[in-house]
Amino acid sequence: MSQLIEVMVGGHGPHKVFIVPIKGVIVDEGAAPSPLRGGARQTSARHFEVLGKRIRHDPLACGVLLRINSPGGMASASEDIFNEISRIRQKMPVVAYIENLGASGSYMAAVGADNIVAAKSAIVGSVGVILQRMDVSEALAKLGVKMESLTTGSLKDTTSMYRPLTDEDRKYLLNEIIEPAMKRFVTIVSSRRTAITEASWPEITTGKVFSAEHARQLGLVDQIGSFDTARDAMIEYAKTKNSGLTKDQISFVQLASKQSFLENFLGGMRANASLLEDLDEAVKTLTAPGLWYIWKL
């Protein structure tokens, strides 16, 4: 991984609030944002943990401001990011700003914060789980192709794309895989969002998304406002946590990957190809088997 450098984006004080983005699909592994890829179109849990560790060990760090625009992603990766945010919160305050979309796994990440601010036009929610598989058996049959699998049990190949799901498969996947993951999701949200009433849970757990105002009424977010609203809230949290700290002593910084001359040169050469590469990677990622905390249109 490239060396991380600090980029000051506001203020001039010695104490630092780190702005950390959660953008695009959340995955376990992924490339850190760089010119080679034309920017961040996904969030890697592993890269997020590296950023979190760097921030947690910075003696001048006084807060983290999450900037979220994500439909969620892999279940395990989303939980890993939530856990890292929880570790950060043990040392300093965290505020989450949902600027456009804070759904499913990215909403799980947001609940790790002390305060959630959503933009007026933001979409929030999608508390739910998806496990999907592609069934190509009929298409292959039309081509005269048949796939046969020898397994040691009737449930060994439940996610195989070469045969339809059976009732036994569906029961197993729902009871053993999907429902426990949903229970973890609800447990995480309920432990952090105490403003959510018992009466609101049936609507929240339908998996649908909500407008920012509806989300506020349900207790999913704390405030409706702009990025400045979230920034001001972050400053107040930092001042409360650090006695004597003033606004003028705080600066806002971002961590970026320092690129070599060669990486920057190649980044320019490959700029036109980056969109197609990202599209190909997104298709491969979203069709991979596994549990997802993700919102899909």
UniProtKB/TrEMBL annotation:
Domain Peptidase S49: 89-239
GO molecular function: serine-type peptidase activity
Family matches, as Pfam families: Peptidase_S49
UniProt-listed GO biological process terms: proteolysis
Keywords per UniProt: Hydrolase, Protease, Serine protease
InterPro entries with a match to the protein in the record: ClpP/crotonase-like_dom_sf (IPR029045), Pept_S49_SppA (IPR004635), Peptidase_S49 (IPR002142), S49_SppA_C (IPR047272)
Gene3D superfamilies named among the record's database cross-references: 2-enoyl-CoA Hydratase, Chain A, domain 1 (3.90.226.10)
Domain of life: Bacteria
Annotated family: Belongs to the peptidase S49 family.
PANTHER family: PEPTIDASE S49 (PTHR42987), PROTEINASE IV (PTHR42987:SF6)
Name of the protein this chain belongs to: Peptidase S49 domain-containing protein
Source organism of this protein record: Candidatus Terrybacteria bacterium RIFCSPHIGHO2_01_FULL_43_35
